Amino acid sequence: MSRDTTASLPTGLGRRDFLAAASVALSGGMAGCAGVFAEEGNQVNIAGSSTVFPVTEAIASAFSEENPTVNLSLSKTGTGGGFGNFFCAGRTDINNASRAIADAEIEQCGENDITPIEFQVATDALTVVVNPEADWVDCLTVDELHDIWRAGGAERWSDINEDWPDEEFELYGAATTSGTFDYFNEAIIGEEENHRSDYHATERDRTIVQGVQGSEYAMGYFGFSYYSENPNSIKALSIDDDGACVEPSIETAMSGEYTPLSRPLFIYVAKESLADPAVRDFARFYMERAATDLVSEVGYVPITEDQRDENVSKLDEAIAEVTE
Amino acid sequence: MAADTQEASVDSGFGQISRTKDVAFRLLALAATLIGIVSLAALLLNVAVDAVGWLDWGFLTNPPHPNPNNAGFLPALVGSIAIMIMIALVTFPLGVGAAIYLEEYASDGYLTRFIQLNIANLAGVPSVVYGLLGLGLFVGLFNIGYGSVLAAAFTVALLILPIVIISAQEAIRSVPDSQRQASYGMGATKWQTIRNVVLPRAMPGIMTGTILALGRAIGETAPLIMIAAPTTVFGVPNSLLSKVSAMPLQIYNWASYPQTEFQYGVVAAGVVTLLVILLTINSVAIIIRNRYQQRT
After folding, report:
1. Which CATH superfamily is domain B60-295 in?
2. Is the ipTM of this complex over 0.90?
3. pTM of the predicted model, to two decimals?
4. Are A78 and A50 in contact (CB under 8 A)?
């Protein structure tokens, strides 16, 4: 009996302690809630293209080391998904885009009183790849690419060139929600015809690499950075636009020789969000760093210093308008 | 000695066949056990070997980075812990409250049985469905921000609430009825009985169930994807409405990076971190259970 009471005493204390601790934690949580619901500060939200993702990730990581109190969030939604569901709906401050904003998206932003400002932050060389065993092909003309990827076009390698094997293509490409798809469609297929739909479509570039590695007769396309990380396991094709084969590389994209598949990459900043000091600081930081090695390290071409100066003055103008 | 021979003769009388079957079944059961254990050990070993050289102090304290050598886990780590704390604050009072009502107050009518049936079914609903509910309810209707700490915590809390309720009910049911009757016999009210007799006795079971449920919650990815939790977060959450990433989400994201260093080294380091935290939570549950059991 006496043992029982001594045993229950610490339990009682423990319970009281626990209740006290729980109530302190709860009231602390409530107080936190009250302060938090009033204001959401030091938060920068970014969504959009998975192609631009590594650039923004590199810059955000560097920014966060200097400004640890700012909470930056970054989502991969595809260019169109980012504009439609996040940026133009007022949920994010910045959208990554691997193509220019469409008219319908500008309209949608306008309905929600959001003014997108465009900044070019890098250049990409969209890369067409084949299996390393495919030794018959090193270079394709734009017309040949067009014939391979258009709806109702070539079915077999021998349809393009009689010397090539009489085997069917196995095609891997970007999904239709992707800015990469939009760009390839515009540059190679054109408006009169459609991109074929009987290919393996994916948002994950790694799937394309695995597919092309798996078959001698496969072909795929994606952003240059993914190729530059896997240069031995897949083979990049040179592209012949007007008589000369040009291989995809940071140098050829920068000099403008690699046409028509070198493309500008953008971020769009909501003008209204620039009123927030955290967004302002991050945008400034981004513009300055876009012309440095941070960008070439992740496999893209940095913008020139002239372009950077242009971006910075554009940004300063917008900031001046918002903060006045 | 005589007994031994007698037993042997009885054994052989039963037939040689049953003995072979006995051994065969034993081996079969052993094989079933070994397949699970061996594959688990192989997985852990494989991941641990891959993580060597990647899991260091820098990994635990840096933000994510596209270069695998600089990539860090801090925002996801802190994010997961923040979500966990909020989930515990939400599920513990709700889960225990519901269990007390169902066990101590509710009469055993059709309504109670209907509620009971629903809770049991809710525990088996796939997590992606709870994600959809969280998206509609917390992100859409209550508008507490996509991918925020609160939205993530409430959504996953709903997911594990049925498990917490069921385990708390079982703990309360296991308190002997004679102790309740003794308490009433001393003139105690129902509230006093629950507070002084039932809850202290049931607490180890309730705590174990809750902590194990939290262990399940920490690995959940699908509901977080559904409420549009960001792919990556830089900087630790600074308010309850901050966007938050969690460890499994960050691991999933890394697995799709082009560099093989990410696909093996960095992902493995993340997995080891997640497992260590999960095992810590589970061992805390075991310690709590043992401590309370020694007392009672």
Report:
1. MetI-like (1.10.3720.10)
2. no
3. 0.75
4. yes
